[in-house]
Amino acid sequence: MKQRKLMHTAAAAALAVAGTAVAAGAEEVRVYNWSDYIDESLLEKFEAETGYDLIYDVFDSNEVLETKLLAGGSGYDVVVPSGTFLQRQIKAGAFQKLDKSKLPNLVHMWDVIMERTAKYDPGNEYSVNYMWGTTGIGVNVGKVREVLGEDAPIDSLSLVFDPANMEKLASCGVHFLDAPSEMIPMALKYLGENPDSHDPDVIAKVEPVYAAIRPYIQKFHNSEYINALANGEICVAVGWSGDVLQARDRADEADNGVEIAYHAPKEGAQMWFDQMAIPVDAPNPEGAHAFINFMMEPENIAAATNYVYYANGNKGSWPYILPEILEDPAIYPDEETMKNLFTTTPYEPRVQRFVTRLWTKIKSGT
Fold it and tell me: What Gene3D superfamilies does this protein's entry cite (predicted)?
């Protein structure tokens, strides 16, 4: 789950030499992924190794991707939806089954993650994990403790859902994800309800929770909080694990005195998965399989993890992952924490409409 800069890559000059390209319809592979979600050198490496021209575009929300997929004729060969959206899109017939004979690097995948992604994609017939992580809380440790004291509950959902805390934190800035499929389950967890509830009466219980803290939320979005945290412009962000850790590292590199920490809330955190899949009408399925298999090469997916600071579902990549990433429990949680993570399933259309209206109302504060 990522956002930010747009990337397009053209063919490497050497690959344009006469006689090197394959037939016109097959020479391009078009990939649609979350932005700032890959080491760009991998894009050039794929072109050099396969002879394909890679067209790499980015999106900033699952909703944008889903609109393209369900309208048909997206023009992409590989897309990267999140697990809950993937499940709904599989049911809608948006994807083709993988030809696993063309994916020899499947042998490197991590069984623990494949067991969890099978909840969205039974048998992992349509998709392969790209990255996974948790949704939690990023804090500017110094500012939060200055506002709330040394015993500030920085590892708890009460930090952001207790109005008494949020009223004080508003002075240093709080950002929330604009992602109802993440934020509604989080509030339900805070209330002690089933975070995967599909009952509108249960889901509606989050409205008063958000109404009480809405005046203290500076902004809802899915991208700006990284730099805002890193630069000390805000003190709290409810966001994705890798994003917060990128903010932490940017602050360290800037040596600006900002200490950023990420916590998967002790009450339980949502686990999410971004999955590589091939649209049913992909122009180049052969090239799509080549790209997915390329990204499953342990050294390649490790390079992506080393860039984005997200865990991947490829156990074979571990020897190539930077030790400070592999050994960071905020990225690769320990076994006990893993047991406390939860997943959610997509809402059926009737409930989804209710959730969309509710989230619009929450954001507007009306």
Answer: Periplasmic binding protein-like II
Spatial contact of 287 and 77, defined as CB atoms under 8 Å apart: yes
Q: Give the closest residue to 274 by CA, choosing from 86, 40, 5.
A: 86
**Cβ density class 87-108: b for 16+ within 10 Å, e for less:** bbbbeeebbbebeeeebebbeb
Residue 319 burial (10 A CB sphere; 0-12, 13-18, 19+): exposed
Residue 35: the pLDDT is 86
CA distance 199 to 206: 12
Helices (H) and strands (E) in the chain, counts: 17, 9
Over the stretch 103-143, which tens digit does the pLDDT of each residue have?
Answer: 999 999 999 999 999 999 999 999 999 999 999 999 999 99
> What pLDDT, on the 0 to 100 scale, is given for residue 22?
38
In the prediction, which pLDDT does 7 show? Answer: 39
CA distance 256 to 203: 41
Q: Which CATH number fits domain 134-270+344-364: 2.60.40.10, 3.40.30.10, 1.20.1050.40, 3.40.190.10?
A: 3.40.190.10
Secondary structure (3-state) at 101: helix
Instruction: Convert 206-230 into a string of H (helix), E (strand) and C (coil).
Output: HHHHHHHHHHHCCEEECCCHHHHHH
Residue range 98-111, pLDDT digits in tens: 999 999 999 999 99
- pLDDT of res. 26: 46
* Stretch (H or E) spanning 66: helix 62-71
CATH architecture of 13-133+272-339: 3-Layer(aba) Sandwich (3.40)
Provide the CA 360 distance to its chain's centre, in angstroms.
22
| pLDDT score for 60 | 84
Given a cut of 70, the residues of the chain with pLDDT beneath it are 1-26
Given this model, what pLDDT does residue 220 score?
97
> CB-based contacts of 1: which residues, under 8 Å, 6+ apart?
34, 82, 133, 222, 240, 272, 274
Q: What is the pTM of this model?
A: 0.83
Q: Cα separation of 10 and 138, whole Å? A: 36
Residue 93 contacts residue 280 (beta carbons within 8 Å) = yes
